Amino acid sequence: MASSNEDIQISNKLDDAYQHMQSAQLYVSKAPNSMSVDLVNKADDFYNAMQAKATTAQNILAAVQPVYESDAMKTIRDGMNTLVEGLPGVLKALDEVANIHPFIKIAVGAFKVVVELDLKRRDNEKKITLLFVEMKDMMEVLIQLRLIKDEEEPGPDGTTIKARMQELVKRTADDIKTCANACDAYSKKKLLVKVLKSSSWDDKFKGFLTLFTDRRKAFTFALEMHVGKGVDDANRKLDSVNTKLNLVLEFFATLVPPDQQQLGELINSRGGPDAVMKENDVLTALAKYKPSSEVGSAKRADAHADLRSNKDPEGSLKELKEELFESADVAMQKNLETFERKFDVQRKKIIEEMQGIVRHEGDRVIDSVLSGPHDKIRDTDIHELWKDMRWRGHAKARHFVLALRDYYSSEFVSTSGVSGPVPRVIAEDQWALKYLDVEYISALIEAFDEDASGFITISEVNQFTTSRPQGWSVVHWLAYWAQGWQMSCTYYIVKITNCFAEIFALEPHVRAENHTFVAEYLMNVWRPVTTLSASMSTFAVEDELWSRFESYVLAEEKRLDDALKDVHYYIDAVETLYLITGPGRIEQFIFPLLYLLVRRHLDVMRLCYRRVVINRGELWYAAGGIYYIMDMVMARVGYLESLFKQRNLDPDKQFKTFAYGLYNYIRDQDQFWSLKSLMNGSFTTADFRPDEVEKDLPEPGDVLSYPTPMEGLFSRPEEILTESDLEVSGPLKVILGRWYGFFGEGDAWPGYPMVTFFFHASEDASVAKARSITAGGVSFAIVGQHALKDDGTVEYSFSQTFSGGYEPRHLKARLSDDGQSLFGLWGNKEDDLKDEFYLTRLPPELLTARPSPREFRENKIQALWRYAIDATREQIRRKSTSLSWIRIKEYLARRNKYLTLIAREEDQGLNPDEYKELAILDHGFTYDEACCCFVLLEMRNRAGDKVPNFGCNVCAQEIEGVRYTCLPCSLAQNTSVDFCDKPGCRDATLDIDGSTHLPSHHMIKVRTFLFYDRDTPKLFGNATRVIADLTEQAKKMGTRPKLPAADARNDQGQDGDTGLVDGASGALQAKDSVDAETPVTSPIDIKKDEPETRGRATAASANKVIGVRPTCVSCSAKMEPPFFVCVDCIESIYICTDCDEQLGGLSIGAHTPSHSLLRYSRSSETNRAAGPSEERLRALESKVASFSGQFTALNERMHRMEGLLESLLSRLVPEVSVG
């Protein structure tokens, strides 16, 4: 083993280091208590620790090395390394045997499907590979059936091979599918989950290894017995199989990937899995962990992790804990439906490949005896060209395409046996010759050269020619890739753009409970899709040319749509995408695939409008499908970039032209999505039309992948006892089935809402187990066992564990004599059980009427009478068919009070009286009713959720309410500069990258949710035009701004700014425009409609103006800056700051409180982002102003002194005259 030499080298180095340390001690011993002595001692301790570890490693290595290097283990390793190479031969042999013995087709078919699915997985782990090796070894036994010619011929014991093995083969097919589903579920788990749950999954995989070995033994035994070799011969073969199984299980334990090893060590350093799962902060940090590149590359087990970057961390942690709480069996069960869809799709593809081999007219028949490489080419024309050019296995791409163009451009070709020359291209295809021009040479090269290597191989030629539609010539196919593909991309880009425009128009109007998820979907999906669509150079669709390609384009769309329907539009992995698209470059199907998914998501949004409240996961996993496509895109970009560098080509230049620039923007998105670029573009918009939204609305069950929150509340599928449950006997059997109950806590009864679960027996019939969900939505598992006490009674012990990090419960219970109730004590620690619980088989309606255990202890007779009376009343009330308004009001009042209390309990806790009231309400609701209340509470919370999309530049907190955006600073910084509504933030002075934000800057006040990338350009554009209009009017008036003309804001205007009114004199001061560089040009979108432009109100527009000064539309007060101007209304709406603050927004005419407002400031000089020189100038002005104030004060004092002297003189003058 390579690692053994490394360990020996390390040990030798440690010994050498120790010798040097011993010699060093001779010198330092003369200096006791010195720092050198301490250092040497520490080094000695470190050496001893390292030496101990090295010795331990060598001891372990010495123990396992003989086994690892044995011939049997080498065979296992070789089987793993050669699995892929050996599968085609095995599959071919199995197909041949299946034709002889059709009864094995079911197992052979399942094996072929799961092998194809596994081969599509990019990052197969060695554990999964070992499973498939054992699966292959099992199936190879069936190849021996080819020695048996007749499956109906009886063996020596009179049993046919079909009768002996048919049922076994059917079970094998099911086992293969179950194993493949387990592998699929495991591959989707996050790295952290794989490590923390490794023991659970390892046990499951070892079970499959044992199962396949047992099945292999069963096949071998059946074959040996059929051919009459005897039991002894069969047993000898089975012994060798058992020996190999032991080695395989030992080898399996060593197959831990490097990334899992590294994370496992980190987890152990934090106290181990149990300790880690109890610490939320540690779990959150470990969930973000990525292995170092030296140990192993980080695998992306869950592409939805990127989607959750904007998600609430508490929500992500809750999902992680839910996943950690799941057992391997539960995870497999959840994944089964998705896996079965993929299984069926792959099975159909295999059948289609076997039945749908297409031969085109003119294709050559490839003989087994070949005279040269050109004879492997199927197309006659290209075969002739390849032969004439004397190319071998490949040709330079450019040379090949140019030669092909010259070949087809020759008008005539002489053909033996035909009188005179004949056209090389038939008349129907003459139109296509123009697209073989040099102008399209790059597109043609890309069509042939799938790997972008710069060379075209014979296999690539055959792949290109055989993939063309039936009835199309090669020239027609070339024309499609020269121009038709770009045209089809344009066709789908327009469709995608229009779908998003409809979604954005619908977004503000969806139900409040759905809005957060719709907004998060758009925040995560729209930008990457738009980056792709905007990057590509589009081509206007020409009807005549489009008609030549339309049939193929629509056929491909239908093929993809059918495949998406088969998986219910749920893309859970990149492998699923390969399954949907089939072979080929991603460029071929990227836009039709995106369109089909976005169109489907639009249907979900339409349901979100008014009809349904969707599940939390509906749009998250819908967006996940888009992200898997982007994973493929980024993988393709990375591959192309490395290939261009290998070919000494400049990637920047290549990506500008490759696939018509498809990947150009995706490589460097910062410039494209910069504010300057956005300000120069516009996005397609659509009007919100409620009638169109609800027109031909699909049924929720046909579109939604997840049940809605309200589904299943009162129609929960009833569990029944299984066959294994019915076979159980004794004390375990009497507790199997459905239970309802309450748990008390302290003096409160109950302390929690009603619970329910259904006990089943374990596989070995040793314990009872159940899984369920609390009324509050927390998953839990409960496991129970029994023990016989000294007094002959049976005591049951239960352990209840919860997802989400809640403390487990331990229960001790006794079964009532009638077997209808379980009761006892519970606690969070096994040695501290002090709270009571009561479980019953009776209907939950009767349980709500049952008094508490304390009441039964204190006065059992009274409690029984009360129980009987209340239960009777409850049954009569519930069975009554008439509903009175009093009963409805009473129930609604109880429910609303319950919702208030449980909401307050989550947020701030309750006082003792409120806890008592909550306990009474808990007692009065059945499990289903309590579930309904918690769902209603979730709907209320969802309706009030805010989507944080911007952060405050001062306090660094997410802004969930009113947001202020500084216009001049944003334009100067090329990104949005935002402040929350707290006075200390919105009125702050802030240094930003060498410039200064001042409170007097023009600010945009936003009260509604806006998408930064999409809405900011329009918002800033409108605000800039408002400022430009006011500036222009101020210049024209020369004194004060006048209400502009109606069409003044229809023009683009200019970036400008001005002070509106001088506070002292009222004279207008015209100022310079807002500093901002000219935005760079970027083709952001294809416009369907021009964006709505803003216009001024006319004189009759009812915006109140007294003289020439703007007045508040609410209080009619004359306004001086700062004041607000609506940037969304067509008419100019002016609002004073007092009215806006006091009323929280105005509703007047078309103006609504959700409209954005520009806060227009007094002086434009302060409305620019101040640079360093401006700061010094401002400081100088400030000093001058302070001096001016001092002079003014001095002047006033002089005036007062002069007045005092004058008054004194006036008094003195009469006295002097008298004297």
Automatic annotation (TrEMBL):
Spans annotated as Disordered: 1037-1095
Residue stretches of biased makeup (Basic and acidic residues): 1085-1095
Record domain EF-hand: where: 436-471
Any one GO MF annotation of this record: calcium ion binding
Superkingdom of origin: Eukaryota
Record's protein name: EF-hand domain-containing protein
Lineage, top ranks: Eukaryota, Fungi, Dikarya, Basidiomycota, Agaricomycotina
